[in-house]
Amino acid sequence: MIETTQKSRIVEIDPITRVEGHGKVTIHLNNDNQVDEARLHIVEFRGFERFIQGRLLWEVPVIVQRLCGICPVSHHLAAAKALDQIVGATQLTPTAEKMRRLMHYGQVMQSSVLHFFHLASPDLLFGIDAPPEKRNIFEIIREYPELARQGVLMRKFGQDIIHHTAGKKIHGTGAIPGGINKNLTISERDALLSDIKQMFDWAQQAVTLASEYSQKHRQQLNTFANFKSNHLSLVREDGALDLYHGHLRATNAGGQVIFDRVDYQQFNDYLMEEVKSWSYMKFPFIKSLGHLDGWYRVGPLSRLNNAAFIDTPMANQALKDYRDFNQGQMNHMTLGYHWARMIEVLHCVEKIQELLLDADLQGSDLCVKGERQQEGIGVIEAPRGTLFHHYQVNQHDQVTYCNLVVSTTHNNSAMNRAITDVARRYISGNDKITEAMLNHVEVALRAYDPCLSCATHALGQMPLSIELYDQQGQQLDRMCRPTHAALKDA
Amino acid sequence: MTAESKLLVIGYGNPGRQDDGLGPGCAALLADFIKQEKPCWPIDIDINYQLTVEHALAVSKANAVIFIDAARQLSSAYQYSQLTSSEGNVWSYHIVTPGQCLWLAEILYGKRPEAYLLAIQGVQFDNFEERLSDTALCNLNKAFQFLLIQLDRLLY
Questions:
Q1: Do the Cβ atoms of A63 and A377 come closer than 8 Å?
Q2: Domain residue limits, chain B
Q3: Chain A neighbors of B108, CB-CB under 8 A
Q4: Per the count of CB atoms within 10 A, which of A178, A205, A290, A300 is most buried?
Q5: Any residues with CB less than 8 A from the CB of B73 and at least 6 apart, and which?
Q6: SS3 A466
């Protein structure tokens, strides 16, 4: 909470809406009342990497799920992939890899669906400028109950996949170093297949909704936090979109390759993290470009920029439409994340069906081992972007080193750029901040679907506040939002 | 929720964050108890990190629901209260409150079951540690005995 001075008026969104986790935004004005910059501060640190040290490597894929209740499966799988290296499992059995993929597609689908249907939809369906009493999830449910029900059932479908592949809903144990500990039974498969057609229909409708929104609001997409950046993601060997495995590819704003075909075991040779005094969240950048030019984005927008194609027909057609919208150029639109996210959901549904019809899921060869290593790095394309887990272990199988670079951290510079861009456009020249102005800042952040709990390796939640400062560092304004509808100045 | 089930118990929280694991811990105790002592009790048990929107579907199919969660500022070891559906102040996150979960069940699926919240007092939440504090363990035992009485009342 911010202390106010006699002169100052502070603006705060309390809590920031529809974003997960802890943080604070400050907006800094110069003497001409123009926005110099906006900063996303992460104000809490809990040190999960220290907590994991000393734990036995076999425990790690389960323990890391406690990092975050929102995306535990992504951490589960990234850790398992890292530990595959340590137990020498360079090639998983087909059953193991496909079970993990099924789990992952279920996770990406349910996470992205929640963001689109329940967190972003108020802005998309009612408009960023709509009054706050209208622009909220409750009005979505009242006016679009079918959409809300679809969101719930698609979430449930994704959770059911996780349940059947991870073994249980909480602290799933499905992925283990070297493979998995269960296959998919025929009855589990049939139960999931019984819902798949409905998932196709709804996923296609969601793509259409995102596409129509983008067509209708083309000018807004072109001007709202649309800035050039580099993009990082995994891609498959042949350049296809691959959410589970592949090599690292980084491209610049024009689409030229910065690096490609990089084995992610060598990621430390290509990426670095910068520390800034005002945030616990680090600022990764591409080493060869330096910290000023080397920052990049990850997640659905970057994945669709970097992929040559998508290996499922419906999503690939949707990708073509998506690229036509931007004349085949690299898409740098912050609001483009929503459309890209829904194309990935459609891709996930297609992959889920493909996997459910694959008899390898009923295989019994679940786990392999090889020559023991002391170090392992696992990378996965989590719903929010590229997720790195890096571990070293000693001869007693205890973890001696752990470094996690999570998706939201990769997007740190981009999110700061996005909120600065929006603050300059909508707040510069105003000595008073309105809720509508602040919502624009929130919308810019929200598009990245940041998980600030993950990014700080913290748990729980805390409001994100927004404050306005002048050049001397005086707080000028503060806003509280005691309910989703009302605003008051402090 | 199976067709013949009457009651849904949802224990939620993060066992990796000390006493935040009281909800899952209590629900796990109940699962063991039913398995060993009362296999005929028609109760579905759900253990999860958080309440999320899809819980509304399961809630809508139950005749009665008990949510179990850890609490920070109770004046007693536990507190049991009947819930009403509520939009709440803000639905800002990927998670929902028990009241919002009931509200969603009602508005999306047309059913709002009788619902209760069993809040159990915890005292340590701030570290990554998979262990309940001694105080929380003591409170858990008291709350669990109370829960058994309430379940018996709701079922019969």
A1: no
A2: 7-155
A3: 141, 145, 148-149, 152
A4: A300
A5: none
A6: strand
Question: What dihedral do alpha carbons B133, B125, A388, A312 form, nearest 10°?
Answer: 100
- A482 contact B CB<8A: yes
pLDDT band at A23 (very low <50, low <70, confident <90, very high): low
Taking 80 as the threshold, does the pLDDT of residue A455 lie above it? no
Is the minimum CB–CB distance between A462 and chain B shorter than 8 Å?
Answer: no
Residue A8 has pLDDT above 50, yes or no: no
| pLDDT score, position A335 | 96
**Fold held by B7-155:** Rossmann fold (3.40.50)
Phi-psi region at A211: left, alpha or beta (left = phi > 0; alpha = psi -120 to 50): alpha
Provide, as residue numbers in chain B, all residues whose Cβ is less than 8 Å from the Cβ of A152.
Answer: 53-54, 56-57, 104, 108
Instruction: Give the ranges where chain B is alpha helix by DSSP (H).
Output: 22-36, 55-60, 98-109, 134-155
d(CA B142, CA B148): 10
**Subunit contact A20:B49, Cβ cutoff 8 A:** no
ipTM over 0.85: no
Cα–Cα–Cα angle for A74, A76, A80, nearest 5°? Answer: 115
Q: Is B2 helix (H, G, I), strand (E, B) or coil?
A: coil
How much is the pLDDT for A9?
Answer: 33
